[in-house]
């Protein structure tokens, strides 16, 4: 009888587990159905503006990503209309936009500088991935988080991206992996196969988005590299000018001494000594004048490079400002 009771208990437990699995499945199905109804509600009568459709197409969004994007009724705007929705400095990477949680909106800053073409596309993709991350189930998020953190700890080599994540760690310590999810998906060219496969559900050609990032990031990189090259030239020229000026001082002191000696010999009537000394003095004076002319040329060259260097640095500063919170209306 005891054996029969144990068997019956095990059957009952298995039945309870089976019921629990069914209930969990039903609950999951209900949640999915509820989300589908909410999406339908948000999209009812919504007609995406041409500019929004263009962004979705440029980003090669899949139907899933496009729905996420459209559900948030994305708005491409500028001025106070943008800052009234997006907190200044909320993003630490080279995007200007925000996602309001629970699908309450995606805002993309309208960038008009042609040198920064691609910022809007990357911003749209970045914010859409925030919306996607919010919808991950607990088990999906655990799996995705593990892949993101593993890549960050063992595969990430781009110092700019590392600096970006470090900034998020300070400003949004509770959302760092969420930000990795958006940053890695839009700004890192090559990811581990599992992550590449994961992002395919949102973008058919993720490389195109990364290319946008590389394009406008290149505007900063090229100017930074040019400033660095100019600084190297200026350092070498400064060293040469300093050495020449030291030599000129020494030669000038020697010429002054020779001139004084010649004057004494002339006053004393030592004509032969004076005449012999004049030739030597003139030779030294010619060398001094040649070095002086060369040094002046170097100084002019130095000043010309300074002007070019400062012009490029100013361009870099202006571009940086256009992608920073300080450029927004409420922060000027």
What does this structure look like?
With 332 residues, the chain is mainly alpha-helical. The protein folds into three domains: 1-45; 50-216; 217-331. The chain has eleven helices and three strands, in the order αααβαββααααααα. A three-stranded mixed β-sheet has the order 1-3-2. Strand 2 (97-100) and strand 3 form a beta hairpin. The radius of gyration is 35 Å and the shape is rod-shaped.
Task: Show the helix and strand layout.
Layout: H1 2-43, H2 50-58, H3 63-71, E1 75-77, H4 79-83, E2 97-100, E3 105-109, H5 119-135, H6 138-154, H7 159-171, H8 176-187, H9 193-199, H10 206-268, H11 271-322
Helix pairs in contact: 1-3, 5-8, 5-10, 6-8, 7-8, 10-11
């Amino acid at each position: 009888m005891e054996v029969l009771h144990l068997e019956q208990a095990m059957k009952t437990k298995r039945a309870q587990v089976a019921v629990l699995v069914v209930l969990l499945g039903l609950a999951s199905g209900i949640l999915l159905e509820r989300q589908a109804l909410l999406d339908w509600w948000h999209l009812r009568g919504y007609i995406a503006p041409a500019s929004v459709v263009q962004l979705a197409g440029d980003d090669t969004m899949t139907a899933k990503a496009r729905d996420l994007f459209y559900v948030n009724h994305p708005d491409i705007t500028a001025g106070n209309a943008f800052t009234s929705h997006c907190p200044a400095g909320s993003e630490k990477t080279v995007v200007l936009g925000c996602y309001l949680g629970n699908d309450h909106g995606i805002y993309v800053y309208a960038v008009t500088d042609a040198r920064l073409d691609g910022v809007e596309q990357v911003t749209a993709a970045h914010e859409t991935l925030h919306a996607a991350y919010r919808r991950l189930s607990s088990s999906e998020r655990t799996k995705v988080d593990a892949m993101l953190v593993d890549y960050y700890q063992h595969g990430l080599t781009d110092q700019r991206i590392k600096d970006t994540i470090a900034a998020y760690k300070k400003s949004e310590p509770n959302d760092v992996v969420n930000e990795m999810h958006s940053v890695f998906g839009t700004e890192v060219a090559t990811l581990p196969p599992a992550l590449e496969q994961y992002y395919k559900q949102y973008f058919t050609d993720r490389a195109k988005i990364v290319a946008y990032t590389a394009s406008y990031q290149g505007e900063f990189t090229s100017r930074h590299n040019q400033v660095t090259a100019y600084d190297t030239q200026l350092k070498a020229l400064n060293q040469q000018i300093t050495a020449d000026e030291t030599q000129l001082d020494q030669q000038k002191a020697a010429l002054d001494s020779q001139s004084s000696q010649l004057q004494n010999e002339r006053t004393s009537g030592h004509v032969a000594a004076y005449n012999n000394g004049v030739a030597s003095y003139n030779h030294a004076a010619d060398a001094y004048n040649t070095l002086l002319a060369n040094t002046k040329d170097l100084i002019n060259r130095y000043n010309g490079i300074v002007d070019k260097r400062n012009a490029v640095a100013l361009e870099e500063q202006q571009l940086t400002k256009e992608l920073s919170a300080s450029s927004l209306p409420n922060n000027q």
